[in-house]
Design brief:
Layout: H1 3-23, H2 42-60, H3 79-94, E1 103-106, E2 111-114, H4 115-137, H5 145-155, H6 183-190
Antiparallel strand pairs: 1-2
Helix pairs in contact: 1-3, 1-4, 2-3, 2-4, 4-5, 5-6
């Protein structure tokens, strides 16, 4: 696998592991908290995150078109446990040989995508979702600068057409990026999050 192609898998691994770290910091009283995902509690957000991991893992095997793999876990009495298993599944799937050379069926995004692009979708999603969880819990996010730089580069490529943003789509309408924003805040604004409303501790 060429180095440039391998990088997106490595970047994704870092984002997923950080998302797992912050999910595992949640306590029982936290699961019903509101999150930056409007209308979703932390429990519902983590269920969605787990389902997406299983769906992407299935897509590496050519089974992404099967809706069962994208369903949220039914048993969420211990959301962190369901999420840990889902994260392990997608990390193992993406570590398989030539995953970038495969085609991914991603029904929620409307079709079949080359592996490089599909893993890029997953990567940016989990940078954002790791932030969602950290913001909900009021804790810091630990992502290296090169990961954040890559995230904002991907976020700048996401189409901003309002017809593909909002309820029922992967991202909310893009927000204006305040002058002087760092790469994480820029990526979040481009993907419809409002980091100033959910400040992380410095």
């Amino acid at each position: 696998m060429p180095a440039a192609e391998a990088d997106i898998v490595a970047l994704d691994r870092i984002a997923v592991r950080e998302s797992l770290r912050v999910v595992e910091l949640a306590r029982q009283a936290d699961w019903e908290r509101d999150t930056p995902c409007t209308g979703w509690t932390l429990r519902r957000l983590v269920a969605h995150m787990a389902a997406q991991h299983h769906g992407f893992a299935a897509a590496t095997r050519g089974a992404g078109g099967e809706s069962a793999y994208w369903r949220e876990p039914e048993d969420l009495t211990e959301p962190w446990r369901a999420y840990r298993g889902a994260a392990a599944a997608v990390l193992a799937a993406f570590a398989e040989p030539d995953v970038i050379g495969r085609e991914f069926m991603l029904p929620e995004l409307g079709g079949v995508f080359p592996g490089q692009m599909a893993v890029g979708f997953h990567f940016i999603d989990y940078v954002v979702h790791a932030w969602d969880v950290a913001a909900t819990l009021g804790i810091g996010l630990d992502l290296p600068e090169h990961v954040l730089d890559a995230a904002v580069a991907v976020a700048r490529l996401v189409p901003t057409d309002p017809a593909g943003r909002g309820p029922g789509f992967a991202f909310a309408p893009a927000l204006g990026v305040p002058a002087g924003s760092g790469p994480l805040d820029e990526a979040l604004c481009l993907l419809g999050r409002a980091p100033e409303k959910w400040p992380l501790p410095s």
